[in-house]
Amino acid sequence: ERREALHRIVQQQKNVLAQEVEEARELQFGMLPSNIHIPNRFSVCGKMRASAEVGGDYYDYATTAEGEIVIAIGDATGHGLRAGIIVAAVKSYFVSGAEALE
Fold it and tell me: Which residue(s) pair with 42 in the sheet?
């Protein structure tokens, strides 16, 4: 009975961790542009396949008021939540910098 209780606790912890990792993965993919549209200029597409549940790959783009295109492509060292946090910070810096260009 004690062994079964311990097994249930371990399984619950695994389930919680798996849910947190899935949420981090969704957050990471949510930071990537879903539709790259640069009118009258280019057709562009992007795709990322993470080698781990959460990775450090990132890409984004912005256009300036003058119509110039600014592209960011990066790969944070490593995988996992640390790399995901770095990507979140880079996204924040990129968006702030792109807004300054407008």
Answer: 38
What is the number of alpha carbons within 13 Å of residue 30 lying toward its C-beta? 7
Q: At what angle do helices 81-101 and 2-30 cross, to 10 degrees?
A: 20
Does position 30 have pLDDT exceeding 80, yes or no? no
pLDDT > 90 in the chain, percent:
12
SS3 of the chain: helix, strand, coil, percent, to 5: 50, 15, 35
Q: Is the pLDDT of residue 19 over 90?
A: no
- Encoded amino acid at 24, one letter: A
Report the alpha-carbon distance of residue 33 to residue 47 in Å, rounded: 10
